[in-house]
Every structure is written in structure tokens, then in C-alpha cells.
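Re: export button greyed out
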Amino acid sequence: MTDPKRYLVTAALPYANGLKHVGHLAGAYIPADIYARYLRARKKDVVFVCGSDEHGTAIPIQAKKENTTPRAIIDKYHEAMKQDFDDLSIQFDVYHRTSEPLHHETAREFFTMLHENGDLETKESEQYYDEEAATFLADRYIKGTCPNCGSDRAFGDQCETCGRTLSPDELINPLSTLSGKTPVKKQTKHWYLPLGKHEQFLRDWILRDHKDDWRHTVSGQCRSWIDGGLQSRAVTRDLDWGVPVPLEEAAGKVLYVWFDAPIGYISATKQWALNNNRDWKPYWYDNDTKLVHFVGKDNIVFHCIIFPVMLKLHGNILPDNVPANEFLNLEGDKMSTSRNWKLDMRDYINDFVKKDNGGGQCVDMLRYYLTQIAPETKDSEFTWKGFQDAVNSELVSIFGNFVNRTFVLMHKLCAGKVPKLHEAVLDDNDKQMIADIAAAKESVENCLENYRFRDGLFQVIDLARKGNQYMQKKEPWILAKQVAEKPELQQQIHNCLHICLQLTANLALLVNPWLPSTAQKMCYMMKVVEKMLDWENAGKLKLLSVGYALREPQLLFRKIEDDEITYQVNKLKSGALQTNETPAPVPEKPAVPAKDIIQFDDFAKIELKTATVISCEKVPKADKLLKLEVDLGTEKRTIVSGIALHYTAEEMVGKQVVVVTNLAPRKMKGIESQGMILCAEDKSGKLQLVKPENPVDPGSNVS
RNA sequence: GCCGGGGUAGCUCAGCUGGUUAGAGCAUCGGAUUCAUAACCCGAAGGUCGGCAGUUCAAGUCUGCUCUCCGGUACCA
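Workaround output, generated via the alternate export path:
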């Protein structure tokens, strides 16, 4: 979009069921914050909105887990996340929450318009209903036995043990988690958003109009979705936590969280307008508003497909870009909450920012490193060693050191004041440096405009590097020793320090979107007001006035010591170890079976036998399936088993396994499976075969 | 399996519509220097651009096949 009148920048609404980690930061919040700060520095009309996403079934679930109420959960995590963002200099213009009445009202209005315009479909279906609690049960509120792994910790949407996606109908022995009773099937009506109707619009808008300006990771994923066929999506669901559907016939139903959450951007904008006595409407209705969504790649489909369709139907503007980032790994592995392999924002804040030698410099160190490794084009990796290297050899040695030596020399050679620039004696080095400052402004700006934050920050550091080179060529400390014999050298010294100081001011300005605390500290040292950081001053040589006295230098960044790094790495590893070794917290009543008690006769219905794998091959065109021939002593059978991710076909041959031999046969990928192989599965989802301690004859009964 | 995105120096990445000896930063090694947080500066070394084949006067850059990593999706009794 050329020359937008105003900007609306959004960062993904974090879900209020736990603390967020540095992957979230690198993925959405830091890039969004950099962009918003840049626009503010350019005096653009910009609103940067975010807020807590507080609906959805995971909230009441989390409440149960923590033995409290949903309200307490969202209040707790809303405050915590808000605080963490604040501690890391993520400067939203408004941080709202979807539990606010303003949001409910906004979401209701949104739904109502779509409904009244006939843009939604309705469908009746049978859903589980808890008669005692007199409510329909969300998938998450039904538990039962997993048809896949047999675990009793399966829910209507997913099995906790094997992670398989489920539908409530698949559960064996479904039970309501509310009453503990067996639910009944009951007719229910829901509203759907028919995405398929908008396929052509999406194709034109994304694949044609934004062919060149969207990241190809983003448009590629969109194409994948569109080509895969766009299904209608339920907008409502039977749940009591969320925005009630504003229809009389929809009592007990709420808007699906995916529907109400992005509308949170709109309600946040409204709240901002109220707080600042402004009009929110142009930000969502005027075509000269540039809307940019910052999200992680898991959110692409919502922000590029679903929400735009909603916005179009509702008469709003569409996002100009969705610069989604990929994922951030940690020390060689994916970040994972369940395995405790992660770095929470709060942990960093406590271990670095809140320490005596911490503060803003540590905030900026993290912002620096997370930008430097930002997964803009592919997944990237956070390592503590990398963090240390980036801080020590770039921030400290190049950037911090340049500023420091400039200030020290200025105090030693120029009496603590900004020296004069003697234009008549400018040499090639001076001129080149001046040109480099102007050029840096252009390249940094270009990067920022195109969401290349990693490259932009590199350009800033590179300018500091050029400053070091320049100073080295000029060697004012050498000139100072000769000035007694050659007084004319004093002008060279002045020119060098003048340019270095103006360069320092420029560095403060250019680095400000990325490292705001550092920019402020530099302003303090230069005794200038923050207005100097206005982008229009960039590239110029007049940021500091001649003769102006500056403060004593203070170091911009401290070094990261080796022991801090080893401490963090050990902490990460031992934390992960703990979760691996300690089983899930034992409930107060130990090991009450979740399944119904059965009699011996029931058990006896299952025939279990040992078998030896004779041969084994991978089922073609299936990732998880192995086809096995097993010897049951008296017979041989073919079994198809979903263990290919854990065992290779070769290593299965010769192994003894336990087989359910009287299970009804089932065809998979065209092969009839005549039994089932038993496996144990740990928390991480790793499968282990169940087998006799010592080999026994094939066909031995297991009981 | 299908769809999408990657695989370029030890690490993190640039390389647009094909064109001279494939680039940068960090790390490493050597040198120089002292204004500076043993910092800076100069220099060197380091790559059969995942593999194979093809198109072309010319391919990291185009085509086909293949291996591998990351998502999504199907298979999981």
C-alpha cells in the first residue's frame, strides 16, 4: 500500500492459560513492537493493539487443574502476561482482554451482522449431552478410553497419552467430566461460516494481489489450505465459557473462540479510542488504513483465510500483510511446555532483567538476540552460547565499544564538549563516513518497511562497525600526541570526534525500534531529549550542537559470563529431566481406575497371546503403519500396527510381542489386520513394545 | 502418501528476472595497535551451493528424478 493514512498493528492475542515463552516473543511480539516503534518514530498515525485471549475450553480446563475458577485463571494470566510484555519493553498502545464487556458486545454485533445478512449456515447434529448438568458437552469435557492406545486419559478432542486427534464419537466408554455420568446424544443446532463460498475471493486476494509482497512461507501455506478445500467452520459451540450467542434459540451456546478472538483486535482498538478520546472506526473501515497482523506460523490460517473472510463479510478492511514467523527451537529441540523444554519470558526476566546487573540492558540483549535469530524465513534456534556470542561480540564489542570509546576520547581530547566540524579540512575518510551514515538510514528504513527486521538490525550494527573502522583510520589519540608540534592537527581531531558523536546520535536513533532502553540511555549520555530520536533526523549530521557538554560515558552493555550460560543450560536440562522422571502429579486418590470396574469374565473375553514377528514391512503411503507377519505357534497372522514412527520394519523381525488375537479384523490401507500389538506409551508419546521378560513359546497365553 | 516451506563456509544467513575467481557477520588462526568492556583495526584460512541427470556458450540460480529437515493433512484399533 502506498502512503497509508494510518496504521493498525496487531500482535497475536496470547492465550490466557499459561506464561508465554521466548518463541512467542520472537515470533510475533518483538517484530510487531519494532514495527510499531518505527512507525511512531516516523510520526505516523499508528495504533498497536494486543490483549489476552480468554475464552475457549482450555481455560475452564486449566481452572480445574489449578483447582480454581476460570475467572481466576484469566485474571492471573492476563496480569502476568501484561507484566511480562511490559518488562520486555513491548509497548502496546492498548492491551485489552476478551472477557471485557466491550469485547462481548463487539463480538455479538459481529455475529449478528453476519447472521442477519445470511452469511452463516446452520446445521443440526447429535452431540453428547449431560442430563444431570443439563448442558451439552464440549469435546474437551468428555473423557473416555482412547480407541488408539487404550489409555483412559483420552478426551473428546484429543488423547492426552498418544496425542491423537479424536472426535467424541470415537471414545470408548464416554463419560462427562462434569457429572461423571455417561452422556446421552441429543440434537443441537450450530452456526457455520461457509469458507468454501469465498474461495475465489481468497485466491484472487492472496495468490494474485499479494503474490509478490507476502512472504512465500505465508502464501504457500494459504495455497495449501485453499487447494485442500475450504470446509465450513462452526462459529458456535455448546459451552458456558465465552461470548453467549446473541440469539434466543441459542441459549447455552457461545461463539467459538477462534471466531471471537480475532475480533478482540477490534474491541481493543475501541478501548484504545475510548482511552484516548479518538475515533476507532477509520482504523477498521477506511481503505487508507494499513492493517498488519504479526503472528507465528501456527496462526497463518486464521489471519490469512478465516478472519479476512469475516472482515470482508462484515464490511471491514483486509490486512495488508501478515508477516508470520516460523518456529524458534531451543538448544537443539523444539520448545515444549509438556516436556518443560522452553524459556519462559518470565524466567529470563527473573534471571537477567531483575538482577542487580540487569535492567534495560538485559531486555535489549534478549531483543537483540531474538531479532538476530528471528525465524523470518525458516525455523531457527535459540542457544545460550549463541546468545552469549551475539551479546559479547556484537552488542558489547562493536556497538557498545564504539559508543564508549567515542565518549572517552571526546572527554579526553575535546574537553567533554561536541567539537566543531571544520568543513574545509574534511578528508576522504570523513566524507565516506558521512555518506555511510546517510546510506544506513536508507537501508535500515528499507528493511523495516519490508518486515526484514533481522537484516535491518544488522545494518545498524554494521554502521557501528564502520564507525570503529573510521576511528581506526583517523587515530585521533595519535594525532593528539603530535598536536604540540602541529597545531593544525587539532582540526582533524575535532572533525573525527564530531563525526563520531553525530554517528553515535544516529545509532541511538536507528537502533531505537529494536533496543529502546539502549537508545534512551544514549540520549541520557548525550543530554538530549527523546525527540532527537524522531526518524526525520536520521542520516543527518546535526543531531548534536557544537559546544554542547555531554555526560560521562556509561557502559551500554555488560558481558555475559560463561557461568551464566552453563547455569542456564543446566537449568534447562535438569528441568526437562525432572518432568521426564517424575510421573504426572499423583491425584489425591491413587490410581482409581478411570474405566468402569469389570469382572473377571469381562477380562476373559480378551484373548492375549505372545507372538514372534516373522517378517515386517512398511505399509506404503502411510507414515505410521507397519505390516507384520506373526507366528502364533498354531497359526500365522497379518497385523497392521501404527508403530512405524517408533520401530523400523527391520528391527521388528524376530521380536516377541503380545497380541490381542480375538479382536475383530479391521482393514487399514487395504490390508486386513487380524489383531493388535500391545505397546506402552510414555508421556512424551514414545511407544515401547510390551513383551515377555524372557522369550516364551509363540502362542503362549497371556493372562 | 499428498500439499507447502527449507537444505549455500564450524554457526547464522545474503545471493533479483541464469553470466567474470560463490558473498557477509560471528567463531577460528596470524598480524598490528592501545582511545576503548583483553575491546577495536588489518589479513588469512574455510564451501564439489543436499545428491544425480538434463537444458544452455554459460546454472547455487531453469527442468526432471532423488535424499533430508520443518509445518499441515491422510493412515493409527
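The longest strand of chain A covers residues 608-618. The button fix ships in the next patch.
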